[in-house]
């Protein structure tokens, strides 16, 4: 790993959109903006800016943009797979609330930091050369059978051991990153595990508006009710100092995609971390999920995700919301309970409305957070999964135009 990933970082030099990139200058949904912070325009669909595949310094030789990506699980892995193509100054800050599977077992038996999401982030950043790729495949390998090791991922065991040997999870993760040739640094949100606690409505058929406490990442992610509020325990966990320093030095902060309540919001519920996120000089971009997640966001429209984000992080301002145009159609077709409980949430649902109406609703929700909407095709065709190449193109265009 290069020194720029771990040592002192210098602010990135301004970068500009390349001529002929194919992105329109027409802005979708422009909220009032402060003059010193510009945001990019809407993207012209189907075009990606030149140079995305290079993942190197720009033609002027200036350092690439310093980016911190927050999240966990498959959503964070998707953003990292894209971001590694366009910057060599990348830090992943990973949620540490997992209490299921291999991570949950190690956490319960050893008091260890849950390593599963951290392992996935490392794998997403692993070098493509044969040796680091082989180590990455080993980290992802999961034991079968019915014995004590059944279900454990090798990487979870190795990372837990490295944390004990090196005296800290951060030191162990740095050593593992070197082993995998990772294109960035992977850090935990907190040096110790946290518990995710939700107030959930709709679990009692006789009292649909009554709420019940649901505790633990797995239970919250799979709840049959509607999450009304989220908190973490302890209420004021320590933030990882190295992660806080990365936020302070970043040019862009990336939230999402990923499970809204269990992968994204926990980062904004750690007081020390959210204080630095709100005060950071960096611009902020939120990447919308491609579809509601069964359980925690079932029935949500795209704008519901933004409303929940605003409700749980008062004072948070975004610069850009990246969305695939396909979410407009899915939002128009959504129905059922939203974040406010049974029935339509907040604004009336769009049931059957044209995509343009869905776009208008999403623009308004983004504007509440101070953001502009950037539409670009970032999904694998026919699948609710982000494609790294077009997602990298969207990030690159947003970062470049945001520097203008």
Describe the fold and architecture.
Helix 12 links the parallel strand 8 (about 285) and strand 9. The chain folds into 2 domains: about 5-95 and about 245-400, no CATH class; about 95-190, no CATH class. It is globular. The longest helix is centred in the C-terminal third of the chain and has 15 residues, at about 390-400. The chain is of the alpha/beta class and about 400 residues long. It has helices at about 5, 75-85, 100-110, 115-125, 130-140, 155-165, 170-180, 215-220, 240-250, 260-265, 270-280, 300-310, 325-335, 355-370, 390-400; strands at about 65-70, 90-95, 185-190, 195-200, 210-215, 225-235, 250-255, 285, 320-325, 370-375.
State the main characteristics:
single chain, 404 residues, alpha/beta, 15 helices, globular
Question: In terms of topology, how is this protein built?
Answer:
Blueprint: H1 3-6, E1 66-71, H2 73-83, E2 89-94, H3 101-110, H4 116-125, H5 130-140, H6 154-166, H7 169-180, E3 185-188, E4 195-201, E5 211-215, H8 217-221, E6 226-233, H9 241-249, E7 252-255, H10 260-264, H11 271-279, E8 283-287, H12 302-312, E9 320-323, H13 326-333, H14 355-368, E10 372-375, H15 388-402
Parallel strand pairs: 1-2, 1-7, 2-3, 7-8, 8-9, 9-10
Antiparallel strand pairs: 4-5, 4-6
Helix pairs in contact: 2-4, 2-15, 4-5, 4-7, 5-6, 6-7, 9-11, 12-14, 13-14
Which secondary-structure class do the elements indicate?
A: alpha/beta
Helix fraction, binned, reads 25-40%
Q: Please state the overall shape, judged from the principal axes of the Cα atoms.
A: globular
What profile does the largest beta sheet have?
A: 7 strands, parallel
Please give the number of β-strands. Answer: 10
Figure out the total of helices. Answer: 15
| Order of helical and strand elements | HEHEHHHHHEEEHEHEHHEHEHHEH
Please report the distance between the alpha carbons of the first and last residues. 30 Å
Number of individual domains = 2
- Sequence stretches where pLDDT stays below 50 over 5 or more residues: 1-62, 332-353
Mean pLDDT: 82
Strand order of the largest sheet: 3-2-1-7-8-9-10
Strand proportion, as a percent range, falls in 5-15%
**Radius of gyration of CA atoms, rounded to a whole number:** 20 Å
């Amino acid at each position: 790993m290069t020194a720029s990933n771990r040592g002192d970082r210098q602010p990135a030099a301004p970068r500009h959109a390349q001529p002929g990139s194919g992105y329109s200058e027409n802005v979708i949904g422009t909220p009032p903006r402060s003059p010193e912070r510009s945001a990019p325009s809407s993207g012209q669909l189907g075009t990606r800016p030149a140079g995305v595949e290079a993942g190197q310094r720009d033609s002027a030789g200036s350092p690439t943009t310093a980016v911190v990506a927050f999240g966990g699980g498959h959503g964070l892995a998707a953003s990292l797979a894209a971001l590694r193509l366009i910057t060599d100054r990348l830090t992943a800050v990973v949620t540490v609330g997992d209490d299921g599977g291999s991570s949950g077992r190690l956490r319960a038996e050893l008091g260890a930091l849950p390593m599963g999401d951290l392992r996935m982030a490392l794998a997403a950043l692993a070098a493509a050369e044969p040796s680091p790729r082989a180590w990455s495949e080993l980290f992802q390998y999961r034991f079968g059978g019915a014995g004590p090791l059944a279900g454990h991922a090798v990487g979870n065991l190795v990372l837990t051991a490295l944390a004990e040997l090196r005296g800290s999870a951060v030191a162990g993760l740095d050593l593992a990153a070197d082993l995998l040739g990772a294109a960035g640094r992977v850090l935990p949100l907190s040096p110790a595990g946290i518990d995710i606690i939700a107030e959930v409505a709709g679990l009692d058929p006789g009292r649909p508006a009554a709420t019940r406490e649901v505790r633990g990442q797995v239970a919250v992610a799979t709840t049959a009710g509607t999450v009304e509020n989220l908190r973490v325990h302890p209420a004021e966990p320590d933030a990882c100092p190295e992660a806080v320093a990365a936020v302070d030095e970043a040019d862009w902060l990336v939230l999402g995609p990923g499970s809204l309540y269990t992968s994204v919001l926990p980062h904004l519920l750690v007081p020390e971390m959210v204080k630095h996120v709100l005060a950071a000089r960096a611009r902020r971009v939120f990447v919308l999920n491609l579809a509601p997640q069964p359980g925690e966001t079932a029935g949500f429209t795209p704008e519901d995700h933004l409303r929940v984000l605003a409700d749980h992080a008062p004072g948070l301002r975004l610069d850009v919301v990246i969305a695939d145009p396909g979410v407009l159609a899915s939002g128009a077709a959504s129905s059922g309970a939203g974040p406010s409980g049974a029935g339509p949430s907040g604004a009336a649902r769009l049931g059957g409305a044209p995509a343009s109406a869905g776009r208008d609703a999403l623009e308004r929700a983004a504007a509440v957070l101070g953001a502009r909407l950037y539409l670009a095709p970032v999904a694998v065709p026919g699948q609710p999964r982000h494609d790294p190449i077009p997602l990298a193109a969207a990030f690159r265009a947003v970062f470049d135009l945001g520097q203008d």
